[in-house]
Design a protein that fits this description.
By secondary structure, this protein is α+β, with helices and mostly antiparallel strands. 28% of the residues lie in helices and 30% in strands. It has six helices and 20 strands. It has a five-stranded mixed beta sheet with strand order 2-10-9-4-7, with no helix packed on it. Strands 11, 12, 13 and 18 form a four-stranded antiparallel beta sheet that branches. The longest helix is centred in the first third of the chain and has 41 residues.
Length: 374
């Protein structure tokens, strides 16, 4: 018999290889799939920001070296030692729980690596503590490394409140009045009052809010404010947070309230001009020249020479005394001269005692006789 070759023969010969391939392929697919997923995960792990410490424990006044890699190139970072924090939960109380006075700043190189010495300081909150590294500019990123401050108190972390969700239920308002010192340039201060409700299934304990103040076209400057208390699920709470501007501030300001990454409310605030400062400078410009003028006139009066008439007047004989309580009687000049002349005549008559009324020369002289009498 002649053996015939054709498509059917080829299909029969290839069928065992096909069956083998179909049997092995399902076993290879999971391994291939896992290898494809493992490559991006490894790359992501390599690119994630990481922080390492030269020492895991040190006392106050010591120094440690903080190193990092996987950060953005040429980024400005902030290094802080924070209390009440763990790498898993982060810094619970925000930067208010960190030793901000002993913090350091560092700039990464082109590959995103850095190394910086950090002095050890006690944070305001008890341990567990971490070395917190966060970006200041650019894309936000942070990383924590566990650290122990020797001799610093230790306390348990507060319970998790990740299921809580706060929302503002009523309009915000600013309470408080300006004092007299504010009129003279003291920092204006108010209280931002609002009501929040917990819409989540878990309670919120000691929430940390952020207060932003914006003036004109400038971006708001955020400051953290922590409220002490607990908001139960489905409950509401009235919260008042202090707001303070810089000294001498005036104009239109915008106060913003933020919780987490969400802005909850905004409130305008018109601050009057401190006219007391203007009044002070105006009075200063008037009083100082007047005082200098008076002092100069007093000096000139003290050092100028005296005139001759003033000396004669000072050495003249004082006039007749005038009785106290009686008004001085003014006499006309003509009458005074006439009275003086009469007084001189009386004085002359008085000094001639041989003239008496009975023996006056005109009365004792004989009368003249007429013509023809002897």
């Amino acid at each position: 018999m002649t053996r015939r070759t054709g498509p059917e023969t080829l299909r029969r010969a290839a069928s065992p290889a096909r069956l083998l391939t179909l049997a092995v392929l399902p076993a290879l697919l999971p391994a291939l799939f896992l290898s494809v997923l493992a490559v991006p995960g490894a790359r992501a792990a390599e690119s994630a920001p990481a922080v390492s410490l030269s020492k895991k424990e040190a006392g106050k006044g010591g120094e440690i070296t903080v190193s990092g890699k996987g950060w953005q190139g040429e980024a400005l970072l902030m290094l802080l030692i924070c209390g009440q924090a763990t790498p898993e939960r982060g810094v619970i109380g925000g930067t208010n729980s960190c030793a901000n006075g002993a913090g350091r700043a560092v700039t990464t190189d082109e590959k995103g690596a850095f190394s910086k010495r950090l002095p050890v300081a006690e944070p305001p909150e008890p341990c567990p503590c971490v070395v917190h590294v966060a970006t200041v500019t650019g894309e936000q990123a942070s990383a924590d490394a566990a650290f122990t401050v020797a001799g610093h108190p230790t306390a348990e972390l507060p319970r998790r409140t990740g299921g809580g969700k706060l929302a503002v239920l009523a309009a915000t308002r600013l309470e408080g009045d300006s004092s007299l010192l504010t009129w003279f340039g003291a920092p204006p201060a108010r209280r931002l009052v609002f009501t929040v409700g917990n819409l989540g299934p878990a309670p919120v304990e000691d929430p940390v809010f952020e207060i932003g103040t914006a003036h004109g076209v400038y971006a708001p400057q955020w400051e953290e404010r922590q409220w002490r208390g607990t908001v139960a699920p489905g409950a509401r709470a009235r919260i008042a947070l202090p707001v303070e501007l810089s000294a001498g501030a005036h104009g239109d300001y915008q106060i913003s309230l933020r919780y987490g990454k969400k802005v909850l409310a905004e409130q305008p605030w018109g601050v009057g001009r401190p006219w007391g400062v203007t009044l002070f400078w105006v009075l200063l410009c008037l009083v100082v020249p007047a005082a200098v003028f008076r002092i100069g006139m007093a000096v000139v009066d003290r050092i100028r020479p005296r005139t001759v008439g003033a000396h004669r007047t000072a050495g003249a004989r004082p006039g007749p005394a005038v009785s106290k309580g009686l008004p001085r009687r003014t006499t006309p000049v003509a009458r005074t001269a006439r009275s003086a002349a009469a007084a001189d005549a009386d004085a002359t008559t008085a000094v001639l005692p041989w003239f008496t009324p009975d023996s006056a020369p005109s009365e004792n002289r004989p009368r003249p006789t007429t013509k023809g009498q002897a």
